[in-house]
Structures
1.
Amino acid sequence: MADQSARGESGSTGDIFRDKVVFITGAARGQGRAHAVRFAEEGADVIAVDLCDQLDSVAYPMATPEDLDETVTLVEKTGRRIVAERGDVRDRERLAEVVARGVAEFGRLDFVIANAGILPAAGEQAHDITAFTDAIGVMLNGVYFTIEAALPTMLRNPDGGAIVITSSAAGFKSVSTDLDSMSHGAAGYTAAKHGVVGLMRHFATSLAEKNIRVNSVHPGGVATPMVLNEAMAGFVAEHPSFGESQRPLLTGPMMEAEDVSETMLYLCGPAGRHLTGVALPLDAGLTLK
Ligand SMILES: NC(=O)c1ccc[n+]([C@@H]2O[C@H](COP(=O)([O-])OP(=O)(O)OC[C@H]3O[C@@H](n4cnc5c(N)ncnc54)[C@H](O)[C@@H]3O)[C@@H](O)[C@H]2O)c1
């Protein structure tokens, strides 16, 4: 099992985040859910938000309210608490409400994982300009709004905290590989994932005096519904150069969401205490190509 191999044979968990609180966007499924469960296993309470709705620019099925309910069930199984709300990361006021509800419940906020995302690069709708504005809205504006919503509470922490932005290998190289695979959605995805590196450096520099560390993670392909779906399979079949550009150097199995969670744990936990301002590739060598 992927999570067991990442944690060693025992699959054991610890308590490095006992009595800490993490705010995770896009937590209904995929990587966001895996991070919520893994942080809870380490003792953290979770504030979770997810759109749980479909955007017209996205060609694959997005998360549902039932997905978010499942995240709640899985976190509660660990014995930790979770405040989970539906909300759009493009909506500043809604994010502030969600954070306020969570902080009212748990009394503090230590970590932010700005993870919510869409990949509007496949299907006819990728050529609608909305695919560009949605990508920027969710993955650049949304990341900024997420951090902004959390900051007033985090700044009260005497012992600081940590923020991790989920970028992508597309934060280092283009999603589109040629004129044929070019689209508004691919442009928006690439621009947003590059753009958050700027936000990461902005916040890492600005928040260092409060001992709040800020880093970005840049995964290659991760086995989640964002990429394992009919629309993306069709896109890869139509654009073999895209498929080739996404093939990592390492030849092992595709990365699982739980593998990314281990990196989140490292960046937020004591082992990462000297790390800030780092754009960390987690891509099995993909961006070396
Ligand atoms: N899967 C991959 O191969 C891959 C690779 C690199 C980076 N990423 C990034 O990882 C992050 C997580 O993606 P995933 O792979 O878990 O995909 P996913 O589609 O399973 O999960 C993304 C979650 O974000 C939520 N979301 C989307 N728009 C939202 C909005 N406006 N407000 C609130 N929530 C919203 C979705 O509902 C969904 O639950 C994304 O930022 C994605 O761009 C994914």
Note: Residues 1-11 have pLDDT under 50 and may be disordered.
2.
Amino acid sequence: MITQEQVDRVLRLSGNGLPCVSLYVPVLPEQPGRSTFMTRVASLLDGIRPLSLDSSLDHAARLSLREDIVKLEKSLAFEPHQPGAVAVFACSGKDVYEQVWLPRPTRERIVVDSDPYVRPMLAVLDEYDRACAVIVDRGTGQIWEHYLDQARELKAIRDRTLRKPDYAAGLAEDRVRNKADELSKRHFRKLVGELRQLFGRRAFDVLVVGGHSYEVPNFLQFLPRDLRDRLIGDFTVDRETATPADIRNRVQKIVSDHAHQEQRQLVGDILEAKAAGRPPSAVGLDETLWAASLAAVGTLAADEEAAAPGVVCDRDGLLARSGESCPLCGDPLREVPDIIDALTETVIDDGGEIRHIEPETELRTHLTGALLRFELPPRPAAAG
Ligand SMILES: [Zn+2]
């Protein structure tokens, strides 16, 4: 599982003068004839081996690179079970080695640079909300992190409650109730304080609240505006009978419904912008490819099921569905089996956002659409 701490650690990495190796390898579902994960790793590492022997680099840099290669070979000697991608950031000379699993395949690549190459990792992670689930009860509170398909408990808070009101001590019944309310208020305030700290550190994107049917509404009333804005749903659960798996499923359903709702909203925004003529937008694969060729895509929406062959220009990065020579530079175009894949990577390289659209929307027939950074010049007629 990827934790926020791990992502933060990768973002803080620096070779401080030594080269950092960043490696991305897709882990694809089993397919006959595909090259194996290990073959891909070996060929990527072969690509940087000459650099580790290059005498124009200083000795410490070469040594660090050579150690990185050995370490990568060793730690990636087995194919991971889960489809997606593996990303590794290494700089042996600074004792840096971070390996993360990503939930979607990325293009395979290896980069040696003074800083880790994090953009593909961030583009993938950016698609998923990190959810904080708080399970409340009068005297207890559990704070869970839900991310991708994983959940882990971050904190459990237990406060004093009046479990057995001691009538014998002479407390009137109202006074007992008032005392209990006061304790639960104090408890809720403490929980809110914890949540505020977590959200203040930007550890989470969204909040889900669960608990007994008689506690959840009370707790929701305690949520200050900033946390209420992050709340995407609540649910009631019987703490006596619910298993951790039940709770996890309830949270994940709320998180995924919310993600689907945002995806539908984005498609709606793109189609609306197209109809209104502003802000600049693209609908359909041809137009989106042309926009990406010009680095105009701010947010790309690609239907989850979209796939289509296409062509790319290796000189200037033009993308199109078909053609023999590049309309921009005249070079011959190279055929690729999936142009959506090339489109996604181009948008990532240009600093745009990617959104895969999972529910069925109008985008299913258009395949792709985008919110653009600027108005596009007319698309040249397909050359060749
Ligand atoms: Zn070209």
Note: The chain has a mean pLDDT of 89.
